[in-house]
Specification:
The protein is mainly alpha-helical. It has 24 helices and three strands. The structure holds zinc ion (ZN).
C-alpha cells in the first residue's frame, strides 16, 4: 500500500510539536506563515471529521467543493488549497478555520434561495482566509501567536456546539484577552464582504444575492442572538454591512444567473435525508402537487430518495422513470439510478452500468463507493482493488475509500494491508487510539518489508502524537 497519508501525518506531528514543546515554537514570532495556518487547520479537521455533526456525504461535499473552487479560482489567491465541508446543524452559520477549511451548516444551505446566495457566503469566508484575518488577529500580540491561533481553532470547534466549552477553551488557553480577539473585527467583516462581493462578480454570480441573503440571514438569526456572547457570532450581520454591500451592488452590472441543477439536487437531497422519510415524502408530494414550488427535477429526485428511505422501492423506481433522461448528464441522478437498479431483482448487468457510469463521471466518489460494493458482492475482488487504489490516489483523505479497501483486502486474505487501511480509516475519523491498534495488528500480521517499514514509521508518529496529547491534557 502507498504511503499516501504521510504529508498529512507529518504536518499533524509538526503541529503537535509546535503546540506541545516550547523549544520548537518561537514565542516572539509575530506573523504566522500560511504553512503554519494550514497545519493548524489540518489538525482541527481531525476533530471536525470525528464530530457527529460532520455531514459525511460525498455528493454534498463534492458540490460544495466545486462551487467553492470556482469562487477560489476568481479570488485573490487562486492557487491556495481549500476544503469545503457541510455541518449538519440547523443554525444559520458558516465558518472559516485557519488554512482554508470552510464549514457550511445545512441550515444555511437550506435558507439560501438560490445558488448566488450560497456563493455570496462562501465568497465572504474565502476572503477571510485569503486576507489571513485569523493570523492578523493574533499577530503582534504579547503571547505566542502560533499557540493563540491553535487556541482559536479549538474555540471555533467548541463554540459550534457549546458556548460554555468555548469560553473554557479560550480562558484555559490564553486568558481573557483572547475572548475579545476571537470575533472578527468590524473592519475584517467589511473587508471580507467587499472582497467576497468582487469574487462573486468575477465568478459570474448575481451580486444582488449578497445583500438579499444577508437580510434574510439577519431575520433568521435575530431571535437567537439576544443572549449569545459576541464572539460566538463570528460574522454578525449588521445593518452597516447590509447597507455597505447594497450600495456597492448598485454600481455593478446586473446578471440574471440560473441555478445549477446540482444546487437544486443538493438542497433536495438535504431535505430528503434530514427530515423523517414521511415528512420528506409529504414535502415533495406537496411541492409537485397543486401548490407547485421549486424545481420539478429536484423535487422528483428528492421524492425518490425519500421513498427509498421509506422502503417503497417500487414507487421510487416509478418516480425515477421521468428523471431517467437526465441521468446521462448528471452524476447525482446517475448515482440514484444505480441505487434503484440495485434494488431491482430483474436487473442483470449492474456492474456494467457502474463501469460506464464511473467512466462518464470519474470524479464522483458516491458512484465509486457503490461500484466497489457491487464488485465486492460479485466477488470480483481484484477489480474492486484496482478501482479503489486509483481513487485513493486522488482522494487520499477519503475515509470511506479506506474502509472499502480494508473489506477488499480482508476478502483477499491480505490481513496486513487490511489493518493498514483500517488504521487510515480510523485516523481520518479522528480516532487515534484505534489507528494505533490497527497499526499494531498490521505489524504483527505480515512480512512485506516495504509495507512493514511504512507501518513502523507511522506507528512511531501516531504514538508521538498520542504522547503529546496526553501531556497537554
Ligand atoms: Zn465574516
Amino acid at each position: 500500500m502507498k504511503k499516501l497519508l504521510l504529508p498529512l501525518l507529518c504536518s499533524l506531528a509538526l503541529t503537535c510539536r509546535a503546540e506541545g514543546l516550547p523549544d520548537l515554537g518561537d514565542v516572539s514570532q509575530e506573523m504566522i506563515s500560511p504553512q503554519q495556518e494550514r497545519q493548524i487547520g489540518e489538525q482541527s479537521m481531525f476533530q471536525i471529521r470525528a464530530d457527529k455533526s460532520y455531514l459525511d456525504d460525498a455528493e454534498i461535499a463534492d458540490y460544495l467543493n466545486q462551487l467553492g473552487d470556482l469562487l477560489v479560482a476568481n479570488s485573490g489567491e487562486p492557487s491556495q488549497p481549500f476544503e469545503f465541508f457541510a455541518i449538519n446543524d440547523n443554525a444559520v452559520n458558516a465558518f472559516a478555520m485557519p488554512g482554508g477549511f470552510i464549514g457550511v451548516n445545512t441550515g444555511l444551505m437550506l435558507l439560501a434561495q438560490n445558488e448566488s446566495e450560497l456563493a455570496s457566503v462562501l465568497g465572504h469566508e474565502i476572503a477571510h482566509v485569503t486576507q489571513h484575518h485569523l493570523a492578523r488577529m493574533v499577530a503582534g500580540q504579547k503571547y505566542d501567536s502560533l499557540a493563540a491561533m491553535a487556541a482559536i481553532a479549538v474555540a471555533i470547534i467548541a463554540a459550534r456546539n457549546n458556548p460554555q466549552a468555548a469560553t473554557a477553551a479560550i480562558y484555559g488557553a490564553q486568558g481573557g484577552a483572547m475572548q475579545r480577539q476571537l470575533n472578527f473585527t468590524r473592519t475584517h467583516e467589511l473587508e471580507a464582504d467587499r472582497i467576497g462581493l468582487s469574487t462573486l462578480e468575477r465568478s459570474g454570480f448575481d451580486t444582488r444575492a449578497m445583500p438579499a441573503f444577508f437580510e434574510r440571514m439577519q431575520r433568521a438569526t435575530r431571535l437567537l442572538e439576544g443572549n449569545t456572547p459576541s464572539y460566538l457570532r463570528t460574522h454578525p450581520v449588521t445593518a452597516e454591512r447590509i447597507a455597505d454591500v447594497g450600495n456597492r451592488v448598485q454600481q455593478l452590472p446586473f446578471h440574471l444567473v440560473p441555478d445549477s441543477l446540482n444546487f437544486q439536487l443538493v438542497r433536495a437531497k438535504l431535505i430528503a435525508t434530514l427530515k423523517t422519510p414521511a415528512e420528506a415524502i409529504a414535502f415533495f408530494t406537496s411541492a409537485m402537487g397543486e401548490q407547485k414550488f421549486g424545481n420539478p427535477i429536484a423535487n422528483r429526485y428528492g421524492l425518490a430518495i425519500a421513498l427509498l428511505r421509506n422502503k417503497q422501492e417500487k414507487l421510487a423506481a416509478q418516480e425515477f422513470i421521468t428523471l431517467q433522461n437526465q441521468a446521462s448528464t448528471n452524476a447525482m441522478i446517475t448515482t440514484l439510478a444505480g441505487k434503484i437498479k440495485r434494488l431491482d431483482p430483474q436487473e442483470k448487468n449492474i456492474a456494467g452500468f457502474y463501469r460506464s457510469a464511473t467512466r462518464n463521471f470519474p470524479q464522483h466518489r458516491a458512484l465509486v463507493y457503490d461500484y466497489a460494493e457491487v464488485l465486492l458482492q460479485d466477488r470480483r475482488f481484484e477489480d474492486a482493488l484496482k478501482l479503489l487504489n486509483e481513487q485513493v490516489l486522488t482522494h487520499g483523505n477519503d475515509a470511506h475509500l479506506y474502509e472499502l479497501q480494508a473489506k477488499t483486502f480482508a476478502a483477499l486474505g491480505r490481513t496486513q494491508e487490511e489493518h493498514h487501511a483500517l488504521a487510515y480509516n480510523s485516523i481520518l475519523h479522528g480516532n487515534l487510539r484505534s489507528a494505533i491498534e490497527q497499526l499494531e495488528l498490521a505489524k504483527q500480521s505480515g512480512n512485506d518489508y516495504y509495507e512493514l517499514s511504512t507501518i513502523e514509521s507511522e506507528l512511531k508518529q501516531f504514538k508521538e502524537i498520542a504522547a503529546a496529547q496526553r501531556k497537554k491534557n
